[in-house]
Amino acid sequence: MPRRTILALVVAGLATPTITVAQAPIQPPQTTATAPARLSDLSCLIRMMHLSSLASKAAEDSKKDEAYRSSSRKLESETRRAVAYFMGRIGPDGFAVNRSEEGLAEFKTMGSIPREQLASEVKQCLEIVRETNARMVSSLKSIPSTK
Amino acid sequence: MNLRVLAAAVPLLALANPAMAISPAGDASPTSNLGCAVRLMVFAAKSKVILAQTTDPAEQAQVRNNFNLANRGFAFFVAKLDPEMSDPTFRPRAERVFEALRGLSGDIMVQQAVNCIKIWQKSENALVTTFQKRQ
Question: What ipTM describes this predicted complex?
Answer without folding.
Answer: 0.77
